[in-house]
Design brief:
about 350 residues, alpha/beta, 434 Repressor (Amino-terminal Domain), Rossmann fold, 3 domains, 4-stranded parallel beta sheet, about 40% helix
Amino acid sequence: MPAPNSNRRVTMRDIAKVAGCHYTTVSLALRNHPGLPKKTCERLRALADKMGYVPDPMLASLTSYRTSLRPASFRAVIGWITNHPTRNGWRNVKIFEDYFLGAEKRAQSLGYQLKEFWLRESDMTTERVSQILRSRGINGLIVAPQPEATMAVDIDWSLFSAVAIGYSLTRPHLHLVCPNQYRGIRMAMSEIAARGYQRPGFVMARTSDERVENNWSAGFLTSQHMLRDEDRVPPLLLDAWDNTRFKEWLAQHRPDVLITKYEEVPVALQRMKYAVPRDIGVVFLTLVEPGGKRSGIYENPGKVGAGALELVTSLMRQGERGIPDAPQQLLIETSWIEGQMVRKARGASKAERTRAGK
């Protein structure tokens, strides 16, 4: 063990010598490994703190690098937790599947497997799902977006490092990764202003806005403060699509561009003989693909999934399990896609106008 006031680092072997155990036990305890008794982890971590142990960041980086070069015959599994009424129901929402594909690709590059676990299997209980996951050596979980805007999931969270995608998991509050919807709609408002639109209208299902923790309506109303009073169109929030209410709202407030997620909007405009974008512009907040005719926001779902995978593996390396006291939020920036449903920006060159759509 280093002498007092020594400049030499305290090592795991030093701690193990004082504790009377093997240094690998100390390594596991410092990572809060679930295979060790909780009291053992606490005792060895307390001893490490007392002895002044701090990890060597350069050694950790070297270890991570050497591990990444080593061909893996066995890949640890990270669980992808789904909760839709049917096993593959979540795959019907393309952005959800893109989250998965982004996470899966990043998992493979880091030496992990990503495996789906459906919480609504017959006879599945809180105890059983936790037991199944632990029996398969799974320490990390990514909770996929829930089928409803606000839902709870009951698992023995103390056993796992866990991250949620999106805001729909409202209990417990885990670390989460999400597109930055607030900045996304503000980006959309800035882009349509650059194209000469003066009276933007916001048309959204109430539950869709709730699913993103009202970040869309918040961003719209914040940007709307920059408009003249007479150009501030009240948002149209619907419990369900209502063609009559939409037509009345459109006639009363006369917006010149619509920001929406509703597939029904362009259909209704066509039936009302509006030409897009000649008569009115349309901006979608969740484009399925970054190309094509539609204008709007692409939420980079592959990067969201990759971010969730990176965050959960970071928690696993640090031995952070359970429900966090202060959950982190990792917000992934969105992208503006030019499309063909809004006017071109005033004063922009052709290259500049098409930049975002490439």
